[in-house]
Amino acid sequence: MKHLLILAALLFIGLTSYSQTYQKSFASLGGVISIPVGDISDAWGVGFNVHGNAGYVFHENVAARVDLQYNTFPYKETGDYTGYSLKSTSIMGDIMFGKFDKDADIKPYGLVGMGLYLNSVSDMKYQGVTYYRGDSETNFGMKFGGGVAFKVSPKLSLFGETSFNIIFGEGTANYLPIKAGATINF
Fold first, then answer.
1. Which of 161, 57, 66 is nearest to 102 (CA)?
2. What ranges do the domains of the chain cover?
3. How far apart are alpha carbons 58 and 22 in whole angstroms?
């Protein structure tokens, strides 16, 4: 019995000391640009992205997060057309694979995610008259990508990330946000 208690104590010490080598949870905020890809790039130009996420590190190489993004793309036509834009808000669950060691200064990672895309097109006006009524739809989609985080302090990292977003529905509505931001580690 004494040997079993000693073995349990050593196992507990080993597991708890190992679990201290990586951050447990994090939250990020950032943005920059979104590039339309495929059929939507014919009508829509480069837009902007804002996003936020929160996650949990399960292992020094595996994390999961909930990611919320807002992307908007302007209509390419110029002239008397106004008010026409494409907006895509996504709510995703991501799995991340990488280096989440809290002592590492550079942390590369890859990601794959699935979730919902809430897409809308606003009304198009031509010389002040509504020419086309906007519409909205919700679609299922996925993304894959990667990034790298740079440690600024034990609790703060700056990162760059990109992901190819594939929205399932009529036609192809894919885009590639290029993001930068800050992560707080808890």
1. 57
2. 22-185
3. 9
Q: Count how many residues are written for the chain.
A: 186
**Nearest residue to 186 via CA among 161, 162, 154:** 154
Pairing of strands 156-167, 106-121: unpaired
Q: Residue 10's pLDDT band (boundaries 50, 70, 90)?
A: very low
Longest dimension (CA), the chain: 87
Structure confidence by residue, pLDDT tens digits, 85-109 = 899 999 999 999 998 888 899 999 9
Residue-wise over 89-102: b if at least 16 C-beta within 10 A, else e? Answer: ebebebebebebeb
The structure's pTM equals 0.82
CATH classification (class only), 22-185: mainly beta
Closest C-alpha among 40, 78, 68 to residue 176: 40
C-alpha–C-alpha distance, residues 116 and 12, integer Å: 41
List pLDDT tens digits, range 137-182. Answer: 999 999 999 999 999 999 999 999 999 999 998 766 899 999 999 9
Q: Count the Cβ atoms, other than its own, within 10 Å of residue 15.
A: 10
